[in-house]
Design brief:
single chain; 633 residues; 24 strands; alpha/beta; 20% strand
Length: 633
């Protein structure tokens, strides 16, 4: 049994560990931890400038030829003395070569030409290149990004003329990592070229280094560093789990259009950008991505959150790989022992563990940004709770069915219901308790059976024993066994029954009247039917006894043996109902007993005082009868 249970729990543990849906639930739990925690203040001195739909409509040109506008924006930021500007834009291709070729061909077709130096000045990249040179000379740092595989970042994918005018440390890749459910929860912070081992930072690292006035490097032990400070809490060596500060627009935001209008018409207003880090990118639905905080967020604001984590050393803390299996084994062990104490204890423990672990994941996330695993421990807790509760419920039901099958033959329905409400182990495994034992026997039955056919004997005994059984059950007794023409019964077991002694005596009196009924007399024929009944109270061991092939609920002990020997005294004293003094002490208030004196009982050292039952006391007084003592005529 224990082996099967351990095997079942091991299967549950493995099923939960490899369950694909557990990852989806884990993602869901992380998202809701953000929402439960709420927002926190953004990184100071950081402003987002969005290229929104209004800016595109205002510019009246396709975004492929916006480089002159970007040049104007950089000059505006330089004039405002901004500290750092990041362009979350891809400068991968250029139209300038095609434009110069087209101009040259048109001039040639018309018999004209331009000097090469002058022709090379035609194009949209020239203003941006010039602006990059000018802003670099003023000390403002401009960060450009490129799209690349973090494992092969050597190809920068930037227009060469732009790239040569940007210091190497101000270049970084713009990739943002998406989980399988398309939600952005992490970012790769640097790439390593597998060809030559060269290290390239992400654009976010480049901005953070520029803002902090330091540089990015990899220490000799492989730790990524911003200056002298290690970048902590990275998963897989270079992946930061983003600790978002809040939902969309948690950072200050301005429209690209409004900034350029101020630069042209109200340059004095640009003073709000002094000393600030400015991140520029598209602010339209096409560039929005799913994040844990209530839906979508523009890519440029995701970069702002990564920057905040880098500057404040606040990526989410990922637990060590050994923590989750250790926690799951501990939870399994706790529930194993809890359900070993019963289904109620197990279920209470299940809900307590579930509540404690849920609270622990929320509190650790809120106070320390620590990502305790949630889904697999919770699935394990309630998976074990469900399976163990089901297993124990079936076991209880099987025991209930067993108890019912055992006792429905012995007791009436009222007692059976009480038995089913009692812990089964108290009944089936045995107990010592005080009971009233009854033995009954037909006087001279051997003579009766010698003169009857087997069919007549069986028919009579079935009628007779059915009547006695009904009487015992009616008085909440247990029919233990039939002994040929005799019967053993007991009262006050397997559950306590107040007034059990009185019920036993009532049953004996009813049996006395039963054998006088016409039906049983007809069945007995000419046989003078007489019975002997004995009652005795004492301790006995009761339980379900027998072998695997045959079990019966019975009582054993000196009380049973004494009662059996008392019953045989009826023949000696000429009585039909005889009892020990233990019965009389309890029932003399309602029944009239005749003292027969003491009698030696085989197997007992001390004699037993015995009494014969006369009748039930009257409830009414009469002048001709002694009050409550004389039996009715």
């Amino acid at each position: 049994m224990l082996h099967n249970r351990c095997l079942l729990l091991a299967i549950i543990l493995l099923a939960v560990w490899f369950l694909p849906l557990a990852d989806d639930l884990e993602f869901w739990s992380v998202d809701h931890r953000f929402q439960w925690r709420g927002s926190r203040p953004p990184l100071p001195d950081t402003i987002l400038v969005g290229i929104d739909a209004a800016s595109i409509a205002w510019a009246k040109r396709p975004t492929s030829i916006w480089n002159p506008l970007f040049a104007e924006f950089l000059r505006a930021m330089s004039t405002a003395s901004a500290s750092t500007v990041m362009l979350d834009l891809v400068f991968k291709t250029s139209l300038d070569g095609e434009i110069r070729s087209m101009v040259g061909n048109v001039l040639k077709e018309n018999g004209a030409s331009l000097p090469v130096p002058l022709l090379n000045k035609i194009g949209f990249d020239r203003p941006l290149i010039k602006a990059l040179i000018e802003t670099r000379n003023t000390g403002m740092k401009v960060i450009l990004g490129f799209v690349a595989d973090p494992n092969r970042p050597a190809d920068l994918n930037i227009v060469p003329e732009l790239r040569v005018n940007i210091p190497q440390e101000y270049l970084g890749f713009l990739n943002i990592d998406m989980a399988p459910d398309q939600v952005v929860r992490s970012a790769t912070l640097y790439g390593r070229n597998i060809a030559d081992g060269a290290i390239f930072p992400s654009a976010d690292i480049a901005v953070a280094a520029a803002r902090l006035g330091t540089s990015f490097k990899i220490a000799s032990d492989g730790t990524p560093m911003l200056g002298d400070r290690p970048i902590r809490n990275l998963a897989k060596g270079r992946e930061g789990k983003i600790d978002y500060i809040g939902p969309k627009e948690s950072f200050p935001y301005e429209s690209f259009k409004e900034v350029l209008i101020d630069a042209r018409e109200h340059p004095e207003r640009l003073n709000r950008f002094k000393g600030k880090t400015v991140l520029v990118g598209f602010w339209m639905i096409e560039d929005n991505k799913l994040v844990p905080f209530y839906g979508f967020m523009p890519g440029i604001e995701i970069h702002a959150n990564i920057l905040e984590n880098l500057v404040n050393d606040r990526f989410l803390q990922v637990p060590p790989s050994w923590l989750q299996p250790l926690v799951m084994v501990m939870l399994l062990a706790i529930q194993f022992f809890a359900f070993g104490r019963g289904i109620k204890t197990g279920l209470i423990t299940t809900f307590i563990l579930g509540g404690i672990w849920t609270a622990a994941t929320l509190v650790s996330f809120s106070n320390a940004s620590f990502l305790l695993p949630f889904s697999r421990p919770i699935l394990l807790i309630f998976g074990i709770g469900l399976v163990e509760a089901g297993r124990l419920f079936l076991a209880v039901e099987n025991e209930r069915k067993l108890v019912k099958s055992v006792f429905q033959r012995y007791v009436n329905d009222a007692v059976l219901e009480m038995i089913l409400k009692t812990p089964h182990e108290e009944i089936m495994k045995g107990a010592r308790r005080q009971i009233c034992v009854m033995f009954s026997d037909i006087r001279g039955f051997t003579t009766f059976s010698e003169s009857r056919s087997p069919h007549e004997i069986v028919t009579f005994l079935n009628l007779y024993l059915t009547g006695l059984t009904d009487i015992v059950l009616r008085h909440d007794g247990v029919v233990d066994k039939f002994l040929g023409d005799g019967m053993m019964a007991f009262f006050n077991a397997p559950v306590d029954r107040p007034g059990y002694a009185h019920e036993a005596v009532e049953a004996a009196l009813e049996m006395r009247e039963f054998i006088k009924k016409t039906a049983i007399r007809v069945a007995a024929g000419a046989f003078d039917l007489k019975i002997g009944i004995a009652l005795h109270i004492g301790d006995a061991v009761i339980g379900n006894l027998g072998s695997k092939r045959k079990m019966e609920f019975t009582a054993i002990g000196d009380t049973v043996n004494t009662t059996a020997r008392l019953e045989s005294l009826n023949k000696e004293y000429g009585t039909d109902i005889i009892a020990s003094g233990s019965i009389v002490e309890i029932t003399s208030d309602r029944f009239v007993w005749r003292d027969l004196g003491e009698s030696a009982i085989r197997g007992r050292k001390q004699a037993v005082r015995i009494f014969a039952l006369e009748c039930k006391k009257q409830d009414k007084s009469s002048a001709e009868k002694k009050e409550n003592e004389i039996c009715p005529t």
